[in-house]
# Entry
Amino acid sequence: MINQELPTKQDFFLEFNYPNILSNLEAFLIATKSLLDVLSTLLTHKIGKKITGFHRKGPKDKPIYGVRVLNALKNTKESKFPHRDKLISIIEHHKKLWIDNLIAMRDQIVHGGELKDFINC
# Structure
């Protein structure tokens, strides 16, 4: 369960510690964030503005992820990048669905040492 409260009524609670599950989840989160960084840097070649990754901006308690990528795309002329609006829409849609949560969990692991809201059950 991630970011969810445990059921209020339960007859028993079983927890097992299987490090392989957690280490694979951590590897997946780190690899996916790295992929977003690489894809963001590839945009540099298309739009001509230096983008070094899908980084966060703003305070640590309320970061905004990918804002530099989105701003760079929005400030690029459509004649230079014809599918700009479609890409912006895709990124914004998926940020709401999963990207922001994935990066926040990845940051907990990389910068905090553990995934705080993950219950390994």
User: Anything to note?
Assistant: The beta strands are 56-57, 64-65. The first strand starts at residue 56 and ends at 57.
